[in-house]
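Work Package 3 (structural annotation) set out to generate three-dimensional models for the target panel prioritized at the project kickoff. During this period the team completed the workflow that converts sequence records into discrete structure tokens, so that structures can be stored uniformly alongside our sequence database. As a representative example, we reproduce one entry of 333 residues exactly as it appears in the project archive.
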Amino acid sequence: MADVARLAGVSSQTVSRVSNGYAGVTEETRRQVRAAMKELGYRPNSAARALKRGEFRTIGVITFSLSTTGNVRTLEAIATSAAREGYAVTLLPVAVPTQDEVRGAFSRLEELAVDAVIVIMEVHLLDAATLTLPPHVQVVVVDSDAGDRYTVVDTDQAGGTRAAVRHLLGLGHRTVWHLAGPEGSFAAQRRADAWRAALAGAGRVPPPLVRGDWSAGSGYRAGRELAGHEDCTAVFAANDQMALGLLRALHEHGRRVPRDVSVIGFDDIPESASFLPPLTTVHQDFAEVGRLCVAAVLSKVRREGPDRGTTLVPTRLVVRDSTAAPPGRADGT
């Protein structure tokens, strides 16, 4: 810094003000200082500035799985939104979803020097009685039912499910089968609960639930089972990947979509419009989820936001070619 000050003909304090972006420096002086920095190859020491200010301008993200579409797209949106705010993102993957692994990830937060953490993980792994958070670290949780204990940002799982079920019933299907996500998943449970409630509200008896694990392979296996039920004319799959496997299984068993069976997914992944047929699905706004997560956690860092509560991001039904009236009900009435 002293070398830059000598070359630019200013004080070290002026160099400090320019490197930290403070006001009170003329544009001409700012240009001189930046030119001297460039000539000398000087870069401000971000670690030293973090120690001085007591902030690191880094957000940690703890997540269990990077294999699911939702987690990957949410992480991408978090990184993009954080960069716009001048923050870096440090990823702390958890190999196995156990309390010890989660506890270890939180323990590493102090070593990695982060101001806040966004957790993309089921709430049962966040037992507040066993986790000790660094005192300065603020937390926001994605996709959880922990709104009474944490600040939560979630997609409107129930609203999206209701829209899917009502669409199928409105086409004339007597009931709707459900290909659910794995047990232990909050999102899967919320969608399954909303499916049952929507059918009950319409006076329909829910068929037996069929469960997958979010993968296309599990959707295919479930589809082979569902294809054997002649009374199955409509299926709501808890995500698009399982819907993809379901479409293949139905095709192999001679059940045409949507003439014989209508199928709806959840997520609206970019590829869903290219499925055969193009998939009707519930759109999740992952970009908005990521933006709100960053906004919420930075609001907490600045002591401006609430300590707990849930923000729901709306969903919308995207109708494509995989849904139609059931056999014998071409008019949908």
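The longest strand covers residues 58-63.
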